[in-house]
């Protein structure tokens, strides 16, 4: 029960890594506000977890982010942490990518972090220790074909993480995790940007030193460590979890 009585907002909670993180946090005693666009999946997860409330909406809308925070305060009376997992790809090189998709990717992957943090930080600072955990990507360090908006947004998210860690220490810890190829729908969508999508995922798996794709549960275990007291002397840091692919 490492998160007993902690209150956390989890974005991107209806699938993939966000869903696994929500389940891991709940199993350790956290009370959750779940964010996502898929109402059916969100309601199902809300029912499964018990001490959770799902709020459907658009994470790129500042007012929705403000509502997530107010929901946490109204339902649970406090807010201890954010787990920020919402993300989209925005595929296509710079010449091909529609400007609207550029903005949508930046807004989803970067601006939403700013919005939710802005409204949450006054409450996070009221606790003994608040925490913001950003689910970034190895795309912050490594470029991939036809992912300009995604790579740019993840690198910017890393800079924002470090800056917030400076501004809000010691009351709030701010960190990021940077997954490599994890077996989620987003990975399979990402493969469409490569010349041979049908083999891109297999090549990514073989490129890892451990010769397997990550699982959402792998990421959830790291996320749990990062928001628990086990990592109480870590802030302003990005932890890579990629099966060793960046070492190849």
UniProtKB/TrEMBL annotation:
One Pfam family recorded for the sequence: adh_short_C2
Superkingdom: Bacteria
SUPFAM superfamilies per record: NAD(P)-binding Rossmann-fold domains
InterPro entries tied to this protein: NAD(P)-bd_dom_sf, Sc_DH/Rdtase_CS, SDR_fam
Similarity comment: family membership: Belongs to the short-chain dehydrogenases/reductases (SDR) family.
The protein's name in its UniProt record: SDR family oxidoreductase
């Amino acid at each position: 029960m490492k998160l007993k009585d902690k209150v956390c907002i989890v974005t991107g909670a209806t699938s993939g890594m966000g869903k696994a993180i929500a389940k891991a946090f709940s199993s350790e005693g956290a009370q959750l506000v779940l964010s996502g666009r898929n109402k059916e999946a969100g309601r199902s997860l809300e029912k499964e977890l018990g001490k959770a409330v799902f709020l459907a909406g658009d994470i790129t809308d500042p007012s929705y982010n403000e509502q997530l925070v107010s929901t946490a305060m109204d339902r649970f009376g406090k807010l201890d942490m954010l787990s920020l997992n919402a993300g989209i790809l925005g595929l296509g090189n710079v010449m091909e990518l529609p400007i609207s998709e550029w903005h949508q990717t930046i807004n989803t992957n970067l601006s939403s972090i700013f919005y939710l943090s802005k409204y949450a930080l006054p409450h996070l600072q009221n606790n003994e220790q608040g925490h913001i955990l950003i689910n970034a990507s190895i795309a912050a360090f490594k470029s991939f074909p036809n992912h300009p908006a995604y790579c740019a947004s993840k690198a910017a998210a890393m800079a924002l993480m470090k800056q917030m860690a400076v501004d809000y220490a010691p009351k709030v810890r701010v960190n990021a995790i940077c997954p490599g190829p994890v077996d989620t729908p987003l990975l399979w969508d990402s493969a469409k940007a490569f010349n041979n999508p049908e083999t891109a995922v297999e090549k990514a798996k073989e490129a890892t030193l451990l010769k397997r794709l990550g699982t959402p549960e792998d990421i959830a275990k790291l996320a749990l460590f990062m928001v628990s007291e086990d990592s109480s002397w870590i802030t302003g840091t990005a932890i890579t979890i990629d099966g060793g692919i960046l070492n190849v």
